[in-house]
């Protein structure tokens, strides 16, 4: 019985430390415009003097803490900022309508920080088609790659394009046409990423009015 009580105390302390780390990581992400969960949790551990990797929070716990932080400290500004981000996302999606765009990530889930990059998935079999489309539209962009976890066993580099629209940073990751059938895994919880079409983003905006 004594051992069980000692284990319970250790577990409780571990839970408290994990919760505190998640809250500090969330504060760092929101206040400094950081969107890297790994960096935020390491920075939080460093600031709190925590070296035990076993008590580091999961990304999903940090996202929950971000949402709590926003409800507590940004209840007035966050909804308006999120609406502006979603309107910018919708405009970018309309620009890329030919490539069946989908909104993903924090701007869709509602946990976006004020300077969060807007993340889209688009679909075509030649990334050059996206390049030419943006050139024709007079949009300056930066080609790059983004590491994407397709499933438990496969992680690949997908081409992407980054550009600015309405003063918001947009990154569109380009998947093959059949990539629309299966979403990659979320870096937050390891589940297939939620994706929203143009009509679904329009509905989100209407519901928040």
Structure description:
The chain has two domains: 2-73, no CATH class; 77-207, Beta Polymerase, domain 2. By secondary structure, the chain is of the alpha+beta class. The protein has helices spanning 2-32, 37-48, 59-73, 77-95, 106-109, 127-136, 198-207, and strands at 102-104, 118-123, 141-149, 155-165, 168-175. It contains seven helices and five strands, in the order H-H-H-H-E-H-E-H-E-E-E-H. A hairpin with a 5-residue loop joins strand 3 and strand 4. Helix content is 48%, strand content 18%.
Short synopsis of the structure:
By secondary structure, the protein is of the alpha+beta class. It has helices at residues 2-32, 37-48, 59-73, 77-95, 106-109, 127-136, 198-207, and strands at 102-104, 118-123, 141-149, 155-165, 168-175.
Percentage of residues in DSSP E strands: 15-25%
Structural class: alpha+beta
> How many structural domains does the protein architecture include?
2
Per CATH, the architecture of the largest domain is 2-Layer Sandwich
The number of strands is 5
CATH class of the largest domain: Alpha Beta
Largest sheet: 5 strands, mixed
- In CATH terms, what is the fold-level topology of the largest domain? Beta Polymerase, domain 2
Overall morphology: globular
Strand order of the largest sheet: 1-2-5-4-3
CATH superfamily heading of the largest domain: Beta Polymerase, domain 2
What is the terminal separation in angstroms? 56 Å
Assembly status: single chain
